[in-house]
Amino acid sequence: MSCPHEEVEPSGAAMAAADEDDAHDHFAKFFECWLTQQERDLQSLRAAADGKTGGPDDEARLRALIDRVLGHYEYYYRAKAASARRDVTPMFAPTWTSSTENLFLWVGGWRPTMAFHLLYSKSGLQLESRLADQNESPPTADLAGLTCDQLERIDRLHRRTVRLEKQISEQEAQAQETVADAQMVELSHAMAASGDAMGGADEEMERAMEGKRERMNEVLDRADELRLETLKAVVDILKPAQAVHFLIAAAELHLKVHEFGKSKDAAAAPTTGRETAASS
């Protein structure tokens, strides 16, 4: 599909591109634009990582690039929140992502503590590469050069994020458990006794579910806020050149897992279709 703009900008145009569509289709189209933008950001980040850095002008350019990339993440979550306010349901069972990605979802998205595992993994790999090449080339300003102070700050942030994740998971559990509250049990019993799944009983069920969807939307809002907050806090601890490498790793992981998952789903779809046809 074609995106409304060359870059995702906080104008709302991407979300307003098809007013006749429902919230699900709206965000599915926006998500495709987001992937395109993330691929563009990845290319810019790679070009910056490959260039020579160190001077004040170079650092300023890196900071400007990092701010732009983070701005795109911020816009993504604003668009997601706007779509969730119309209908939060698709956010917990997204069709725009692959079944592989959905297997690892936490409250409608990536688990914030994944950012730390990503950082440690990339830092370790770059450190191994530096040690192997230390006699052949000068060290690069990447994640292999994390200082003790940075590691301490990252560890404190990690522990704080774990605590907040736990709070959000507990809030989600409480919201989910309301599906079996007294009101729902009484309503479902009345519907079963009367055999009425529509009409007035259906309207009562919808009113009951509306409040429960609202509670799940509040949980999603907190989770998305923590995701963005964690990303920005990690980047804030890193030096500009290090932040570029971290953002590269994040984009590569997201895009390649998405690509792999979609490929797996596409390969499985014809087989499922043949099995359905054979059994019918």
TrEMBL record:
Highest taxon, organism lineage: Eukaryota
Domain DOG1: 24-267
GO MF term set: sequence-specific DNA binding
UniProtKB keywords: Coiled coil, DNA-binding
Coiled-coil annotated spans: 154-181
One GO BP annotation of this record: DNA-templated transcription
Protein name: TGACG-sequence-specific DNA-binding protein TGA-1A-like
